[in-house]
Structures are given as C-alpha cells and as structure tokens.
Amino acid sequence: MYALVPVNIMHTKIITFFAIVCSSALAADQFGKYQFEFGKQYSSPKEYVQRKAIFEANLKEIEKHNEQKANTYTLGINQFNAMTQEEFKAVIQGLPPVPKDVQNNNAREITALQMLRAKYANYQFKETFSWVDQGVVTSVKNQGQCGSCTAFAITGAVESCFAIKSGEVFDDLAEQFLVDCAYGYSDGNGFGAEGCSGAWPQAYLHYLKHKSNGYHYMESFYPYTAQDGYCNAPTEGYYTGATMVDSISLWGTNEDDLKALLVEYGPVTTTVNASPLGNYNGGIFSSWSCCDAATGGESCTNNNNHAVLVVGYGPGYFLVKNSWGSSFGESGYFKIKSGTGHCGFGWQVNSVPMC
User: Fold this and answer.
1) Hey, which of 165, 308, 324, 343 has its CA 20 to 30 A from 333?
2) Phi/psi of residue 346, nearest 5 degrees
3) What tens digit of pLDDT does each residue of 169-199 get?
4) For residues 151-189, b (16+ Cβ closer than 10 Å) or e, as one string?
5) What dihedral do alpha carbons 152, 156, 158, 159 form, nearest 10°?
6) pTM over 0.85
7) Bridge partners of 142?
C-alpha cells in the first residue's frame, strides 16, 4: 500500500529540484563562457573541477558586492576569476623588495621637487584632466603571467613622452627589451630590475638614459614573450622619432606631487598594492581591505606590489592605465580614490621620463 503525497508538497519538491538543476547548469554555462572568452584550458578533470569551484566562489562574491548600492565600484568577470587570491597576488607581484638602506631624493631630485611645488602651489587645476583625451596615451597591453608591470608602465610613459615631444604617436615600443636587456641592472641606489620577478621604475629609466642613450626599442623587432630571456637588440630596432633625455623619480612624495608631475610632464608611473583589484570592473575603487598611505606611511606603501601608469584625474579619483589587457576594468583602465594614498597609491615613488 502506498502513501499519497499531497500535490502541493510534490509540486514544491519538483520546483526545488529543477531550480537546483537549472542553477548548476547556469553555473556550468557561465564557466564554459568564461573558458571560451579567456582561452582557459585545464590539464585534467581534477583541475577543471578545482577551477570551476574557484570561479563559482568568486562569482558569488562579485554578485554579493554588486548588490550593495553603497559601493563606489563594481566587480565583474575577467581573466583572474578562476584564481585564488594567493595565486593572483603571485602573478601580479612586480616590485622587488624595498632596498634596506633606501635613499630618499638626491640633491637634483630635491631641487626638481621644490621647483615643482613652488610652481603648482597656487595652481588652479582643471576639475578633470586626461592625457587620453589629448590623444597621446597608447593602447592597453597585457603583461600575462610575468611580473613585468614596471616594464609596461615605463614603456607606456615613454611612448606618451615621445608623442608629446614629437607629435607622432608610436604605439608599440618593446617591453621585452627592458625585461631582458635591463635584467640585473641597478640605478646605483639599490633600485634594480629582475625581469619577470619585478623591477623598480628608477632602474628602467636609468637604463634608458645611460645604457641606450635615451632610445627605446620597437616591438616589431623585439616581441613580447612574457618570460625572461637573453638581451638581443641590434641597432636597427631602436625607435628614432624621439629620445628620453632625462627622468625624475620622486621617492616618498604624495598625490599632490603626482598630480603636478602629471600636468607638467605627462603620464606618471607610480606604484600601488593591487592585491584587492583582481575582480574590479568599473567605478572608483575604494576598499576597506586597503590601507591609506596618508595615515599609514611606509607601513602602507611597503605593501605595494604593482606599477601602473597614471594618465588623468577627476573629482575624487585618478585615472590609471593598467597592463592586464583591455578585458580588465574599464577597457583596461581603472579609477582609484584620490586624496588618501589609498592602497599606497601615489605615495611611494612617482616617476616621469623627460623627452
């Protein structure tokens, strides 16, 4: 003899069952789309299951964050969603440790800083300013799984510097040239370059001035490989439309100095703790997980692990060109809250080439 199940209970169970099935199918479909869009391939069924689980966990965090209307930025899908936070931090680490006996600005830099501050002490900055709008910022590139962010930031700064000087925008100088040829190089003050293990902006700028006579190499002659290699730079591969005659790197300054450098010279290379940025999609980034250098000083900026190119500013933010491809953030850019050195941004080192 069989017990009769009330129709409404059976109906509820059926709906619940299909909801679970549909939810699983949706998650699988989303992960399939993610794999296709970002070309993700996994070596075994075990790794597939692991990556799918990480992706789904990150997706829940993204949805939870975006439901909170008080947030000033949104999260979204990008190439990092199937990584753990530890894996992401390892991939983006692009700065060597801060030298033990770090020397603050030398006499030349102190003089340059004093002159800059004097000039911009009462300057009426525009509410919004962008070198992108001036047409001198080159396209967003992707450093891949190599800690070469500084090579990309400095190369982008030099491309813009050349464009401002010559009036010609040459979009493709060779980041790999710096990764390979400046490997092991130091600026003489302990700021060195270690290829895919990271580099300081000072090292690359010093190398360009003193070892390549202000010339940078062209991508067509020295393609990017996203790995360390031997220097192979024949003379005919150098871009000759402009040269870098000097540079300024200001250590331990602040966002006011960064803003002045930006308006005076062009896009500025600075550093940031990018660990919380992995799922960023758009808006002005401001996270409880970041310290503020304005109050934390070196205890905050010593966490910086990524070099970026500052290309503009607006009310309450800086506009930043990143090197994680155009699928990241706002077509490869992000905005970050200004005024407090959020995530160490703009308060460790600010560097500009001079052409």
Assistant:
1) 165
2) 75, 5
3) 999 999 999 999 999 999 988 999 999 999 9
4) bbbbbbbbbbbbbbbeeebbebbbbbbbbbbbbebbbeb
5) 130
6) yes
7) 324
How far is residue 170 from each of residues 25, 111, 132, 137, 233, measured CA to CA in Å? Answer: 47, 32, 14, 10, 19
Query: If we measure between CA atoms, which residue out of 352, 260, 272 comes closest to residue 313?
Result: 260
Q: Are 147 and 274 spatial neighbours (Cβ–Cβ below 8 Å)?
A: no
DSSP string, 145-189: SSS-HHHHHHHHHHHHHHHHHHS-----B-HHHHHHHTTT-B-SS
Write out the two tokens for 180.
Answer: 């390979």
Q: Could you read off the pLDDT of 275-301 as tens digits, one per residue? A: 999 999 999 999 999 999 999 999 999
| Residue 149 contacts residue 308 (beta carbons within 8 Å) | yes
Using alpha carbons, select from 176, 261, 177 the residue that is nearest to residue 215.
177
How high is the pLDDT of residue 285? 98
Q: What whole-number distance in Å separates Cα of residue 337 and Cα of residue 319?
A: 9
CA dihedral 300, 297, 269, 86 (to 10 degrees): -10
Q: Which residues are catalytic?
A: 149, 306, 322
DSSP lists the bridge partners of residue 62 as none
Rounded to 5°, angle at Cα 241 from 240 and 242? 95
CA 120 to chain centre: 27
166 residue type, one letter? S
**Cα–Cα dist 330/354, whole Å:** 28
Please say whether the beta carbons of 254 and 347 come within 8 A. yes
| Residue 115 token pair | 């002159």
| C-alpha torsion 49→50→55→56, nearest 10 | 60
CA distance 64 to 43: 31
Give the count of alpha carbons within 13 A of 274, CB side only: 29
Contact (Cβ atoms closer than 8 angstroms) between residue 247 and residue 353: yes
Burial 84-114, CB ≥16 within 10 A → b, else e: eeeebbebbbbbbebeeeeeebeeebeebbe
